[in-house]
Write a structure and sequence with these properties.
Blueprint: H1 7-12, H2 14-23, H3 27-40, E1 48-51, H4 58-67, H5 71-79, H6 86-97, H7 99-109, H8 113-131, H9 137-143, H10 149-156, H11 166-178, H12 182-197, E2 200-203, H13 214-223, E3 227-230, H14 233-243, H15 246-258, H16 262-268, H17 274-283, H18 306-330, E4 345-346, E5 351-354, E6 357-360, H19 379-394, H20 396-408, E7 409-410, E8 413-415, E9 418-420, E10 435-438, E11 441-444, H21 445-461, H22 465-480, H23 494-499, H24 513-516, H25 520-529, E12 538-541, E13 555-556, E14 561-563, H26 570-576, E15 581-585, E16 589-595, H27 601-606, E17 613-620, H28 631-652
Parallel strand pairs: 1-2, 2-3, 3-7, 9-12, 12-14
Antiparallel strand pairs: 1-15, 4-5, 5-6, 8-9, 10-11, 13-14, 15-16, 16-17
Helix pairs in contact: 3-28, 5-6, 6-7, 8-12, 14-15, 14-20, 14-21, 14-22, 15-18, 17-18, 21-22
């Protein structure tokens, strides 16, 4: 190897090279690692799976996660095209998705269960081998379950056609069956196949709100072998609530009340809602709270609880409007004075004046508002808020989940040529980047997003009270502010929707980004701002549901932008006409997958009914993308260069081999 490092260059890196030498103490070990890494760089990139706007719909999410948006079934079709009947392929696919449940069902109906075990193990091993073919042995080994890792590895790398090893291979399988380990082994190898089919999972925002169990989704993500999360506006709301930001707590409780989903608050996260319930029953005892009735169509809900939830819904909404007034007055840089509405109400007449026009209120009962000081919490309200803050801050499970969102998450991510951002890049109508002042300095574009992320991290982790308060307020702004990349509108007209019938007051204007992302000149500016290649790269958004039934396409700007919110949330499916988009990106293609609504796990297991999905081949590359051309590949290449520098130090005598 030709030396390219001078003696002085090596001397300047000695501190780092000595640390590296502890890991690779000889020339041969460093050389072996270089050979290994350079070989890995020439493998095809792994498959990436993109999902967005899950909104607590855990059953549909888990199924799509298990089937890799149809990737498992495609692998089965490719491998067993001419050797298995269609019914057998469906059974094998269901077994991969739900091995425990499917095995329990088969045991009840199949008298020759050992034959089923034997056939399934052989097929699963072949499928696992096929799915692992583009990975190194060391990577596959890391994905294998500990209890059966050695056995699976032996089976994956055996050649059954070899007469020398055929009996060895057969004896392993027979021993598994005879020792009563068939079910555990099948579960282990099915889990391995799920991991191999998708190399990396991207969640492009909005895990929380509306659906029944966002916590189950977060638990599954915490167990995933490789995942990143781009925060959505509903995620940042819960992150702010966990940080103890009062307005975020009020908003989270209001939405949970609206969608009859308080079980997550109480039973899962252990938040004590009794003080709020007691206060609501007392304060709104004779108030029907008609405008605050929860949406119970898709919820398992005791109808006798509806009046109480409606009262809690109204109580926390009024508290929210008061708390928002505090932040708006404290942060003039947010430019949200127009959202101060409680002081625009004529409480005697039951009207409100907005933009010079008077509107009659649908609900005129405000027992907790002092017209002379409408944004001041009553003593009882203040006590409730303090108790809620303590409950949210003391919830071990919520803190564990939110800490995970900080560790694995970010406000945006640039990865393998894709800019992943939940909402969009805040723009002015002329296509220029929207500007905002934070702590006395103006920011825009990428710098604005970076600064916002840093500040909310301070809001959660910082011990300095001033820094923490500024970050806490920004959590709420990212939920509802016009310069938020997660919100993407000029305002949130929550008060108007509850209290004013005239729809002209309900209008929320989308940021110009959602129109201008079709403009190639504006897109080029965005790509340049984030250091992206306009010819090769893409933007992936969620947030705004694609109205499929109206003919709207998720592919924008001639394939430069993909919008993958198609309605995972049942609350949106009547508008979208489908149940979500996902995106699959392998070494050759970008595939957009449209899903129909998921029925249930029971239906999937018993009737082998997969989610009906249609795949659109969005982009096909004639040349495969190799690991060398990925983010991970860049890091590996840097490590190769470091190891070559270490070799030079060994050969020059600056560092001695151990």
């Amino acid at each position: 190897m030709k030396e390219k490092y001078s003696y002085q260059e090596l001397k300047s890196k000695m501190k780092y090279l000595k640390l590296l030498a502890n890991q690779y103490p000889t020339i041969s070990k460093a050389s072996t690692e270089i050979i290994n890494l350079e070989a890995i760089l020439n493998l095809p990139k792994g498959t990436e799976h993109f999902l967005s706007d899950l909104h607590g719909e855990y059953e549909a999410f888990i199924h799509v996660l298990k089937n890799g948006s149809g990737a498992v079934r495609r692998k089965i079709e490719e491998l067993f095209t001419d050797t298995m009947r269609e019914s057998e392929k469906k059974t094998l696919a269901t077994l991969v998705y739900y091995p425990h449940s499917k095995l329990d069902l088969i045991k009840k109906n199949d008298k020759n269960i050992e034959d089923f075990y034997r056939i399934s193990i052989y097929r699963l091993v072949e499928l696992c081998k096929y799915c692992s073919s583009k990975y190194t042995r060391s990577k596959v080994r890391k994905l294998l379950p500990e209890e059966f890792g050695y056995v699976i590895e032996e089976l994956l790398h055996e050649h059954r056609k070899s007469e020398h090893k055929e009996e060895y291979y057969r004896s392993i399988v027979e021993s598994i069956i005879e020792l009563g380990q068939s079910e555990d082994f099948i579960v282990a190898i099915c889990t391995t196949i799920q991991r191999l089919v998708v190399d990396r999972l991207h969640i492009v925002g909005d895990i929380y709100d509306r659906g029944p169990r966002p916590d189950i989704i977060v638990d599954r993500l915490m167990d995933h072998h490789c995942v990143d999360i781009q925060w959505g506006n509903h995620d940042i709301l819960w992150m702010g609530a966990a940080a103890g930001e009062k307005t975020c707590i009020a908003n989270a409780l209001r939405i949970s009340s609206r969608y009859a989903n308080l079980d997550v608050i109480e039973d899962v996260y252990g938040i004590n809602l009794l003080p709020l319930a007691t206060f609501s029953m007392s304060m709104y005892k004779d108030d029907p709270c008609k405008e605050f009735m929860p949406k119970t169509e898709n919820a398992e809900f005791n109808t006798q609880e509806v009046p109480l939830v409606a009262k809690m819904h109204k109580a926390i909404s009024i508290i929210q409007f008061k708390l928002e007034g505090e932040i708006i007055n404290r942060r003039p840089e947010y430019e949200m004075e127009h959202r101060l509405l409680l002081d625009k109400i004529d409480y005697d007449r039951g009207t409100i004046r907005i933009d010079g026009k008077d509107y009659e209120l649908k609900d005129k009962n405000f027992p907790t508002i002092d017209p002379k000081s409408p944004y001041t919490l009553t003593e009882e309200e203040n006590d409730i808020v303090d108790k809620l803050v303590r409950s949210f801050r003391m919830s071990d499970k919520l803190q564990k989940h939110v800490n995970f969102l900080f560790i694995k998450g970010s406000i945006y991510l640039k990865y393998n040529g894709n800019l992943l951002i939940h909402g969009g890049v805040p723009l002015n109508e002329d296509g220029s980047f929207m500007e905002m002042k934070l702590k006395g300095t103006k920011y825009k574009g990428k710098a604005l997003l970076d600064r916002m992320e840093k500040l909310v991290r301070e809001g959660y982790y910082e011990s300095n009270e001033d820094k923490r308060l500024y970050g806490l307020d920004l959590f709420w702004y990212l939920w509802t502010g016009k310069c938020s990349s997660l919100f993407g509108k000029d305002e949130m007209t929550t008060f108007e929707r509850y209290f004013i019938a005239e729809k002209e007051t309900h209008e929320e204007n989308k940021n110009p980004y959602y129109i201008l992302r079709e403009n190639m000149d504006v897109l080029k500016d965005i790509f340049e701002e984030f250091g992206m290649d306009f010819e090769e790269d893409h933007i992936i958004n969620g947030h705004v549901p694609v109205k499929f039934k109206r003919g709207e396409s998720p592919v924008k700007a001639n394939g430069k932008v993909f919008v993958i919110d198609g309605g995972f949330s049942k609350a949106y499916q009547c508008k979208t006409g489908m149940a979500g988009y996902t995106l699959i990106y392998n070494s050759r293609t970008l595939q957009l997958v449209a899903h129909e609504p998921f029925t249930s796990k029971e239906d999937a297991v018993e009737n082998e009914r997969d989610i009906i999905s249609s795949t659109v081949l969005v982009e096909h590359k004639s040349k495969r993308r190799m690991i060398a051309n990925t983010n991970d590949g860049q890091q590996l290449s840097e490590k190769v260069e470091d190891l070559k520098t270490l070799l030079a130090a060994y050969r020059s005598g600056l560092i001695k081999e151990k």
